[in-house]
Amino acid sequence: MVKRPSSFSFENQPNLRGGEGIIDIINFFDSSDFNGMGRLYGISIIHPGCSIGLHTHTGEQEAYYILEGEAMYNDNGNDVILYPGDLSICRDGEFHAIRNDGASDLRYIALISYTR
């Protein structure tokens, strides 16, 4: 299977998980592509001053791979700056948040896979 960018879906999510501003999401997969094993695989774009609020993952885990920009990442209550090439994983039962305090867009690949 080959998917071209023209087949990707785009979303604008305001105040995602209680965060600030609008998050743009480019979805590589639709629900049928996951075969029941996950719900998100794509690129998230957080504009300067915007964020995804603190939330817990239950029955799933989420990984971020930073492509561009710098992220202030809350990793279970610990703030860490993520740079391009860094990978974070929020496992089942853990919590996280991410925000863009920089002057340019933050872009990362996000993958949410089910653990149960």
Characterize the overall form: globular
By DSSP, the count of extended strands is 10
Order of helices and strands: EEEEEEEEEE
Distance, first to last CA: 27 Å
User: What share of residues are in beta strands?
Assistant: over 45%
- The averaged pLDDT comes out at 97
Q: Determine Rg (CA atoms, Å).
A: 14 Å
- Helical content stands at under 10%
Name the structural class. mainly beta
Low-confidence stretches: none
Q: Number of helix segments?
A: 0
The largest sheet is: 6 strands, antiparallel
Q: Major sheet: order of its strands?
A: 1-2-3-10-5-8
Please explain how this structure is put together.
The chain has 116 residues and is mainly beta. The chain has a six-stranded antiparallel β-sheet, with no helix packed on it. It contains no helices and ten strands. It has strands at 9-14, 22-27, 38-46, 51-56, 60-68, 71-75, 78-82, 87-90, 95-99, 106-114.
